[in-house]
Design goal:
By secondary structure, the protein is mainly α.
Amino acid sequence: MNAPDERPDPAPAGPVDRLRRLAPGLRSRPAAAGEGPDGLEALRARVADLEEEVGELRRLNLRLAELTYVVQELLLPLASSDPARAQEVLDRYSAELGR
């Protein structure tokens, strides 16, 4: 039982109460959270940047796949002692670089 000058025990905190207590500043940055017109524009700009970065990564991955293919095409003819085939692959790859 509580003494007269003590406060009663608080009710157990739910998950939302715990989050508010642990991170009181989360709602103080509306632009970062995408709220309001400035926040929405910031999110749109960020999405556009991310889409551009994804496009660049796709191009780099395609280039890497092409290089891997060329290395494979070179190694197999060289392993079988077919220098003419190796030269053909190198020539084709060099022509593709000039696209």
